[in-house]
Amino acid sequence: MLDQIRGLHHVTSMSRDANANNRFFTDTLGLRRVKKTVNFDEPSVYHLYYGDEMGTPGSVMTYFPFPNIIRGRPGTGEVGETVFSVPEGSLGFWKERFAEKGVAGVMNEESFGEKRLRFAAVDGDHFALVEAKDDPRAAWTGGAVDGDEAIRGFAGAVLRLRDSGPTEDLLKFMGYEHADTSKGIKRFVIPGGNGADVIDLQTLPNMPRGDLGAGSVHHIAFAVDNRAVQEDVRRTLLDTGYQVTPVIDRDYFYAIYFRTPGGVLFEIATNEPGFDRDEDSAHLGEALKLPSQHEHLRGWLETHLPDIDDR
Predict the structure, then answer these.
(1) In this predicted structure, what is the pLDDT of residue 309?
(2) Distance between terminal CA atoms of the chain?
(3) Separation between Cα atoms, residue 217 and residue 138, nearest integer Å
(4) How many whole angstroms separate alpha carbon 151 and alpha carbon 107?
(5) Does residue 89 come out as left (phi exceeding 0), alpha (psi in the -120 to 50 range) or beta?
(6) Strands (E), 121-252
(7) CB atoms inside a 10 Å sphere around CB 108
(8) What is the pLDDT at residue 311?
């Protein structure tokens, strides 16, 4: 069994419009854009990162905004909902804010004894805010939302599966423990994790498999401290029979990927080196940063990538 995973690192999704995506996460949700770069495999498309002040692992939502992508079809084999942590008593503020901003799909509910507010982002992707009593993480206070109500980071995520059994076994192998079951959803937690340490499994045996597109989560990443730990995790996963990629340098972290039995793409990402490795912390996410292999494309990219309105 693994004991090195700290919780979530980041969640990466697909979007259609870079400006609409940027406005939603920086203005509506009040997150900080901590990096503006490009997709490693398709550099004509942005890769945008949003999180707390420094892009702390466990706070970062990232997007590939493909201008002509079709809308994804929700289904099994994917992350169905990403959940952010907010302070206790703040959901009234957020419900009023979402009404002012025209946010879709807003709905109050209670699950696992927690008050939560569900909502949809601009591409129909599903999110929730959950009130956390004792989340010590610092919020980003330099943006559109005051620190008293601001998002602290992820609480966790919900995976939709046709059969949860094999994924339950995987999560236990990764150090998660079954904590509770509510309305047929099984909750797994990392003891002593980074705050973004909850994974809920929703079993939907009659739901078809999801189709990737705008509004879909591409992959969900779990955090480990450093590259040495990551190598240990990789060897252990390979020894257990998982098909794991070699380590890939993503500039701000190192990544390995593998497909889970339920079809969800998992990543294990390092907490190092961080988003301030190539930008001063006061100016994260302002300049276009390119992977070294795409630096020769800078001139073309700066004229062809859509301008992002940061007003």
Answers:
(1) 82
(2) 48
(3) 26
(4) 18
(5) left
(6) 126-132, 153-161, 177-182, 185-189, 198-203, 217-224, 248-249
(7) 11
(8) 57
Q: Which two tokens stand for residue 283?
A: 């100016």
| Fold exhibited by the domain 8-304 | 2,3-Dihydroxybiphenyl 1,2-Dioxygenase; domain 1 (3.10.180)
**CA 123 – CA 262 distance, rounded (Å):** 24
d(CA 143, CA 198): 26
Digit-coded pLDDT (tens) for 206-254: 999 999 999 999 999 999 999 999 999 999 999 999 999 999 999 999 9
Q: What's the pLDDT at 205? A: 96
Question: Which stretches in the chain have pLDDT values below 50?
Answer: none
H or E stretch including 235? helix 227-240
Q: Tokens standing for 311? A: 């007003």
pLDDT value of position 30: 97
165: left (phi over 0), alpha (psi -120 to 50) or beta: alpha
pLDDT at residue 146, rounded to an integer: 85
Which string of b and e fits 76-94 if b means at least 16 CB within 10 Å? bbbbbbbbbbbbeebbebb
**Is residue 173 helix, strand or coil?**
helix
C-alpha–C-alpha distance, residues 47 and 247, integer Å: 19
pLDDT in tens, 178-200: 999 999 999 999 999 999 999 99
Pick from 294, 233, 296, 271: which is nearest to 45 by CA? 294
